[in-house]
UniProtKB/TrEMBL annotation:
All copies of domain Xylose isomerase-like TIM barrel, residue ranges: 28-251
Signal sequence coordinates: none
TM stretches of this protein: none
Organism: Algoriphagus zhangzhouensis
Listed Pfam families: AP_endonuc_2
Entry superkingdom: Bacteria
Protein name per UniProt: D-psicose/D-tagatose/L-ribulose 3-epimerase
InterPro entries xrefs: IolE/XylAMocC-like (IPR050312), Xyl_isomerase-like_sf (IPR036237), Xyl_isomerase-like_TIM-brl (IPR013022)
Length: 286
């Protein structure tokens, strides 16, 4: 059975940080067949919202807004100043999403990416409770703009808080706000999940966004990912959202260092985007 989904690609595949100039990628993204573009908001000041809105409309692309959560944007830090920094940043993301017509802001917003330590059960509980309390406040802020949040699991090397679909589902349950939804990323799932299909079923109807690349963060269809299991899982939860390719270029040294990409994964980033779309389109329609 064919999946009723749309396809997107992150501009991180080519460049970072996203700015108003990054809209130069939009015609190419549309030409390759994509329906949507993921806009990672690293610095909101670099984004001229009307300019980006015009470029989206001109190219017939839907926006997906993703947050970037470095050390200063940490809702589990014991210093409330870090929480406020993250709230202020997310308010800017919500404003961008609302003005561009996106339905949610996505990302691992519970903690700073790279905060991966062996902590005591007592410390884990403190940080879990901070994440729950602060994400309730984030949900309230999203609600004002008519938006949801898509919370992402990360692998164990990037966070010690939320690594699996089961942990994500528990976090969403504990937040207990209608705006709290799920994002699943195949790269992280290939590290953490015994079963991709069961992981998708675990989050169920909370799933509002999907990101994919191969197990080695390369072009979909060229690695060890169990795409049949992906399809069974997405069919089981009746997923009708967007499936986006998220990967990175080694040419942007700061971002490449953060995600540990030390060499090119493909001969060209354009080829990554074209071949990835071709594979996903065929896979979804089978």
């Amino acid at each position: 059975m064919a999946l009723d989904v749309k396809f997107g690609v992150s501009t991180w595949l080519w460049t970072s940080p996203f700015s108003s100039e990054t809209i130069a990628l939009f015609p190419k993204i549309k030409e390759y067949g994509y329906d949507a573009v993921e806009i990672p908001v690293e610095d909101p000041d670099l984004i001229d919202i009307p300019v980006v809105a015009d470029a989206l409309a001109s190219n017939g692309l839907a926006p997906i807004i993703c947050g970037a959560f470095g050390p200063t944007r940490d809702l589990t830090n014991e210093d409330p100043k870090f929480h406020q920094t993250c709230f202020d940043y997310l308010d800017r993301c919500f404003d961008i999403a609302a003005q561009l017509g996106a339905g949610f802001v996505a990302g691992p917003m519970y903690s700073a990416v790279g905060k991966a330590r062996l902590v005591s059960p007592e410390q884990k509980k403190i940080e879990w409770n901070l994440a729950v309390t602060n994400l309730r406040k984030v949900c309230e802020r999203a609600r004002v703009q008519g938006l949801e949040i898509a919370i992402e699991t990360l692998n164990r090397f990037e966070t010690d808080l939320i690594n699996t679909a089961a942990e994500l589902k528990q976090l969403i349950t504990d937040i207990n706000e209608p705006e709290a939804k799920a994002l699943l990323d195949g790269f992280h799932m290939n590290i953490e999940e015994p079963s991709i299909e069961e992981a998708i079923k675990t989050v169920g109807d909370k799933l509002i966004h999907v990101q994919v690349s191969e197990n080695y963060r390369g072009t979909p269809g060229t690695g060890q990912t169990n795409w049949a299991a992906w399809k069974r899982g997405l069919e089981a939860v009746n997923y009708k959202g967007t499936i986006s390719i998220e990967s990175f270029t080694p040419e942007v040294k700061e971002l490449a260092g953060a995600v540990c990409i030390w060499k090119p994964l493909v001969p060209s980033q354009d080829g990554f985007a074209k071949d990835g779309y071709t594979f996903l389109k065929s896979w979804a329609s089978e």
